Amino acid sequence: MPIRLASIMSVATLAFVFIPAAFAQPATQPAQTAPAVPDLLPGAIDPFDPGVERDRFLRRAGADMVLSKDEFAADSAQPGGFVRPFDRWETLARYDADGSATIDWFEALKYREELRGKVFEAFDADKDKALKGAERDAANRALAAGAISLAAAASRPAAFDWRQRMTRQWDTDGDGQVSDEERQAAMEAMRRQRTQRMDAMYDTDGDGTLSDAEREAMQADRRQQAAGIRQFGQEWQLKLFDSDGDGQLSDQEQAASRQFSGQVGQVFRDLRRQSTDTDGDGQVSEAERQAEQGRMRQMAVRLMTRAAGAMDADGDGQVSPEERRQFGGRLQAGMGQWVGRFAGRFDADGDGRFDEGERAALLAGFQTEMQARQKAADANRDGRLDAEESANMMTDFARELGIFPAARPNRTAP
C-alpha cells in the first residue's frame, strides 16, 4: 500500500484583558440594527482548524518556516492567508519566546489558541463550545473592533524545560543521567497517566468511570482520526495505481499496488539490515535480532521524550489529550505535505497520476532518499545507526514536517 510512505515517521497561560464593546443604544432612542460584519471566526477561532492554519502559516513563512514582520505584512494584504483582519504583528510578536524577532509555527499556534480561548470565555454564554447566533455576532463585532487584547509577554513564564524535568523525575538512581531502563520505566508510567487523563477528559459526569455513552464518544474521536489516515492512504493509492482514472482499482491495479507495497517494504528491510547485521555475514541471527529490538526501543523512548516537549503547547509540563490530538493533526498534515512534494517530483507529465514508469522512478528515488538520510545520520561513520543516530534522523525529519521546531543556534533542540 502506498500509505507505507507515511511510515517513515511511524516517528503559563497569558493573562487576558478584555475591553467590552458598547453596542447598546441609549435608552431614550429606539433600538437600531447594528451593521453586519464579516464572519472572521472560521479556521482561526470557530471552528479552529490547526492543520489548515499551519498550512497557511508555512506558505507565507517560506523555506525557513518562520514568519518575519515583513512576511506578516505581505500576508495581511492577501486573502486566504494566515493573517486575519484582527491580527496585529505587535501582538503576535509577544509570543517570540526565543527572541529571534520572528515567529515559528509553535509560537503562532500558542497565540491562536490563547486568543481563541479568550473569545470563547467572553462569548460562549451557553458553554457548548460553539459560537452560534448572537454569540457569534458579538464575537465577530468584538474582533472587528479590536476589542480583545492580550497581556504583555512579560506575564508569561519561561518556556518549560522538558529535558531538565525529565532528568529530575526519571533519574531514579540519582547519578545525574537517565539510563535506557529509567527511560522505559518512565514512559510506561506516562502511558498509564495518559490513559487516566484520556478517561478523565471523556468522563463528563465526573463519576470516575466511563459510561457506555462516554466511551462511545472517546471511540468516535479515535475513529475520526483513523478515518483521516485511511482517507490519506486511499487518495494516494488512487493517484499511484488508478491508471484509468475511474476512481476505483481493478484487479490488475490492485495487483500493482500489492507489488509496489512489497517493494517499499523491501527498501525498509534492506536499510534495517545494515544496522542489524553487525557481523556483516548477510544473515540476521537471533542475537542480532534481539539487539535490534533493543535498539528500536531505545530510539523510541528518545524520540518520545523529544516529542513530549513539542506536544506541550501551553508549556505547563504536561501533555493533555487535546494537545496530543492537535499534535496528531499536525503530524498528519505535515506528512501529507511531504509525501505530496516528494512524490510530485516523479509525476513526469504532471497529470496527478502515476504510470508504471513513474512509479519505478518514484521507488528508486525513495530508496535513494532513504539511503542518503541514513548515511547523513551515521555520525560515527560505522555504516550502521545506533539508537541515538536513529532518533536524530527522525528528529530532523520531524523538523521538516513542521511538527518539531526548527533547530536554531539560540534554541535547545527538542
Structural commentary:
- By secondary structure, the chain is mainly alpha-helical.
- It has two domains: 12-25 and 36-155, no CATH class; 163-401, no CATH class.
- It contains 13 helices and four strands.
- Strands 1-4 form a two-stranded antiparallel ribbon. Strands 2-3 form a two-stranded antiparallel ribbon.
- The longest helix has 30 residues, at 212-241.
- The chain starts with 15 loop residues before the first strand and ends in a 13-residue tail after the last helix.
The unreliable regions are 1-35, 152-160, 408-414
**Sheet of most strands:** 2 strands, antiparallel
* Mean of residue pLDDT values: 77
| Strands in their spatial order, largest beta sheet | 1-4
| Share of helix, binned | 55-70%
Beta-strand residue fraction? under 5%
Radius of gyration, CA atoms, in whole angstroms: 25 Å
Which class of secondary structure composition applies to the elements? Answer: mainly alpha
Give the SSE string.
EHEHHEHHEHHHHHHHH
Q: List how many beta strands DSSP finds.
A: 4
Report how far apart the termini are.
32 Å
The backbone outline, from C-alpha atoms, is globular
- Number of helical segments? 13
Number of domains: 2
